[in-house]
Amino acid sequence: PEMQGSVMRTNPLRIAKLTEEQIQELLVLALGEGGLGVARAQYDNPMVTDVGTTTFEIDGGGIKKTVSIYALGFDVEGVPDQAARKAFGALAERLGNFDQGGSIATDVYQPTAYRGILMDGTGMVVPDVVAWPWEDLKPSDFKGPADPNAFQLATRTLTPAQVEAVGVDGPEGGFQGAIINGPGDGKLYSFAARPLLPGETE
Q1: Is 4 exposed, middle or buried (0-12, 13-18, 19+ CB in 10 A)?
Q2: Which of 79, 94, 152, 156 has the fewest Cβ atoms within 10 Å of its own Cβ atom?
Q3: Where are the alpha helices (H) located in the chain, listed in sequence order?
Q4: Sheet of 53-60, strands arranged across
Q5: CA angle 8-10-11, nearest 5°?
């Protein structure tokens, strides 16, 4: 990640066009050594708190599933499913070096839409507060989930132009920590954007 004032930018995703042989090799790795073929949907880590979740989604080799691993890489003594977590970690490392040191050509992924996240920024003091960037949007256009028991995070699907209007250089990889003045409501908001992947609609 890189900082632009108070904003933390995420490195952009990269895409590659694989040959059929490369696709099959990657599927064999993911389903076999990578552990996704026999994995269950969720792996928790009761030994660690307040870290992220790694999610693998696969649709190939006759298997379509999503596998979420909380605190992958934080495999302290006593964590359950150590063998599976080690396999997932190796797969994550392989996918993180997707171009195999540059031997596979990649391009920057150009998102066609983003998930915009608007949060209360009351009390935040930063020197680079920006004016409300959208004439066609108001804070209430960012909606939380319908399920009252779900984490209530206000989101909205945004176009690349709407994300670019925030004024962050190179937003393709997404960013967080942009502080925005409300549209005449006297409030401050914290804004983050995440690129939507192909097939994601919101």
Answers
A1: middle
A2: 152
A3: 20-31, 82-96, 160-164
A4: 42-43, 63-70, 53-60
A5: 140
